[in-house]
Every structure is written in structure tokens, then in C-alpha cells.
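Pipeline run #58 for the internal structure catalog. This entry was flagged by the ingest filter as a single-chain record with no existing model, so it goes straight to prediction. Upstream metadata was stripped on purpose; only the residue string is passed forward. Reviewer on rotation: M.T. Logging verbosity set to normal.
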Amino acid sequence: MDINKWKSVAVKKETHTLLTALCTIKERNPARMISKLVNDYVEILAKKNKRSLDVYRKELLKKGSDATK
């Protein structure tokens, strides 16, 4: 597995169970559901901070990249 493309995270069992239930309802796999939730939240924050989605995404990606160094 390419560690530059994929990451794993640990979540509480209850959170995983909720995620699984949401995936069943929306007919998505967990990875796609997490991506959707994160992307939807980034869009909400961009609007809240009165920034374009592209600019806000770039800012967050830079912050996240800097934090993992």
C-alpha cells in the first residue's frame, strides 16, 4: 500500500458502528463516506469563513501537510 496516498485512523467502536450504519443507509463504503463527511464539512467552514472553497481547501491542506512534518 502506498503510504503517501492512504492513511489509517483509529476511531471509537461506537463511532465505527455509527459510520457503518450511515454507510448502509447511503450505500457507500466507509472510505467514501468519510471523504464525503470531511468534504461537506470543509464546504461549510469555507462558507462560514467567507472564503472560496478552493482557497480554503488549499489553506487546510497546507496546514495539514505542515502538521505531519
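catalog note: The chain has a mean pLDDT of 93.
catalog note: The chain has one domain: 13-67.
status: ready for reviewer M.T.
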